[in-house]
From TrEMBL:
Molecular function as annotated in GO: chloride channel activity
The keyword Zinc is assigned to this record: no
Regions crossing the membrane: 24-42, 49-69, 372-405
Keyword Transmembrane helix included in the entry's annotation: yes
Gene Ontology, cellular component aspect: plasma membrane
Organism listed in the record: Mycena rosella
Membrane disposition: Multi-pass membrane protein
Protein name as it appears in the record: Bestrophin, RFP-TM, chloride channel-domain-containing protein
Compartment(s): Cell membrane
Disordered: annotated span: 197-237
One Pfam assignment: Bestrophin_2
InterPro entries named among the record's database cross-references: YneE/VCCN1/2-like
Keywords, ordered alphabetically: Cell membrane, Ion transport, Membrane, Transmembrane, Transmembrane helix, Transport
Length: 509
């Protein structure tokens, strides 16, 4: 998303393409030529093309209001999309905190089987990774990128079960919807007879991959260059060239090549010169006719779709059910966890509503045709009053009105790869950082850090540390500095009242 002004921060091609100039300049040029023709014929010949401008004010006002409504509606959808992503961030953070802090580390299930702290940490961190996978899957879902085989999504969910009955005979008919929707004939999923290659790691040296036949092949860890490139010196490269957000994910071997996390369409010649798109349309029409004459070809049917974000929330709900069955989560906290999972599902539905509900085509077509007719007849109505100035006036009016119309059309669906769309990748990376910050918390006992020499709980009235206050409470509160002679809670309350008066006085100066 480009939000800075390119005129004052260096004119770059990316920021220039974020404007609507490339979209409206053919139409602006056409209406400017019409205005030039009207002005030249009216001023250089005996024929006057001027017409009365009685309807100019009325139609211009109505058309301006309609375009304003169109732009406001599109911007409202843009803002709703941003608010929905804020809800995903909040719900993800709440779920991670409940799982990491409130689910006990040392647990005993109903079968009297004790879970070690290491096993508990692995379990809870895995479920927090699923929370991160939800936001990533929503990003691909909104961009109409089906499946799970992406560099930023697959490492987070590769451990999930693939078959309904993993202990029995493994057949394609037993594959779960999450994986079945992403499979194709070119890269079939390995069965039990040919398992997926597993990757083993060592602290020093490259990782090794044990293939199905037992052979071992070495490969560098994910942190190094993986695409056959020599790793240059970090001091010679800028962060923008070396930044790889997928390097922070797990290094999991897949049975098929993973698609990039961000795959925007390449800019073509027609994106910069849209006036030549008519030739591309003519060529594609002729190509379709030639294919029809050569005979029909068999087309592969579409894959069965699976709602990946919904599947992830189902696993989170199943984990909540697992905690409740074993009595590892209090009912109040379980209610909060369930509400946050429901919030993720509700937000996903609202985002899908924004992305899959475009403005009706009849409204868009009628508005654009009305604007074209207004701009076409505009120079005929103003040439008698402005003369040759109707040429730049028509150019400015067409650029203004057509620009607002294109802006509304561009931000109507803010989840794609347009430069003015929402930066979904940055939102997902922000959620990833926050979840890792939550899991970095060690959940210590408050008694380990409250009664410390670094803690001055009663400042500014009493700047003694907590260790000093607990060592001799009566002596601390009978000190003459604050005039207290009564030990105990009454002295503490007086100090708190003095804190209120001091803070109220200091902060108002």
């Amino acid at each position: 998303m480009v939000a800075s002004n390119p005129l004052f921060q260096g004119l770059s091609v990316k920021k220039f393409n974020a404007t609507v100039i490339n979209d409206v300049w053919p139409e602006v040029s056409f209406f400017t030529l019409v205005a030039a023709m009207v002005a030249l014929v009216t001023n250089l010949t005996s024929h006057s093309l001027a017409v009365p401008n009685s309807l100019l004010t009325v139609l211009g006002t109505v058309l301006g209001l309609v375009i304003s409504f169109r732009t406001s509606t599109a911007y409202e959808r843009y803002q709703d999309g941003r608010k929905m992503w804020t809800n995903i961030t909040i719900a993800s953070r709440n779920i991670a905190q409940i799982i990491w802090i409130h689910v006990p580390f040392e647990r005993v299930n109903k079968d009297k089987k004790k879970m070690t702290t290491v096993e508990s940490v692995i379990e809870k961190k895995t479920m927090v990774n699923l929370v991160q996978a939800f936001s990533v899957s929503v990003k691909h879902f909104l961009r109409q990128e089906p499946g799970v085989y992406y560099e930023d999504l697959y490492p987070l969910i590769a451990f999930l079960p693939r078959y309904a009955n993993p202990k029995g005979p493994v057949t394609p008919a037993d594959m779960l919807p999450l994986w079945h929707a992403s499979e194709d004939d070119d890269f079939p999923l390995h069965t039990a007879e040919a398992p997926i290659p597993q990757r083993s790691f060592s602290e020093s040296g490259p990782s090794t991959i044990h293939d199905a036949d037992g052979s071992v092949s070495s490969e560098k860890p994910r942190g190094t260059m993986q695409r056959g490139q020599s790793e240059p010196a970090p001091s010679r490269l800028r962060r923008a060239k070396t930044f790889d957000p997928e390097a922070a994910l797990a290094d999991v071997q897949s049975h098929r090549p993973l698609q990039p996390a961000r795959n925007p369409p390449d800019a073509s010649f027609f994106d910069y010169f849209p006036i030549f798109r008519i030739f591309a349309w003519m060529f594609s029409t002729c190509s379709r006719r030639m294919r029809r004459r050569s005979g029909p070809k068999k087309r592969k049917g579409p894959l069965a779709e699976s709602n990946v974000p919904l599947e992830i929330t189902i696993y989170l709900s199943a984990y909540l059910n697992h905690l409740l069955r074993n009595g590892w989560l209090q009912p109040a906290l379980a209610t909060g966890l369930m509400n946050n999972i429901a919030s993720l599902q509700d937000t996903m539905t609202n985002l899908d509503r924004i992305g899959s509900t475009p403005l009706p085509f009849a409204y868009q077509a009628h508005l654009r045709m009305s604007l074209w007719m207004y701009l076409f007849f505009l120079p005929f109505q103003v040439v008698s009053s402005f003369g040759y100035l109707c040429i730049p006036g028509t150019a400015f009016a067409s650029f203004l009105l057509l620009g607002f119309l294109e802006i509304g059309q561009e931000i109507e669906n803010p989840f794609n790869y347009d430069l003015n769309d929402l930066d979904l990748d940055a939102f997902c990376l922000g959620i990833q950082r926050e979840l890792h910050e939550v899991t970095a918390h060690t959940t210590p006992d408050p008694t380990q850090f409250v009664f410390s020499t670094w803690n001055q709980p009663l400042a500014p009235a009493d700047r003694r540390s907590a260790a000093e206050l607990t060592a001799d409470a009566e002596a601390a509160y009978s000190h003459a500095d604050h005039g207290d002679s009564e030990p105990g809670m009454m002295s503490i309350r007086r100090v708190l009242l003095k804190n209120w008066r001091d803070v109220d006085r200091i902060t108002r100066q």
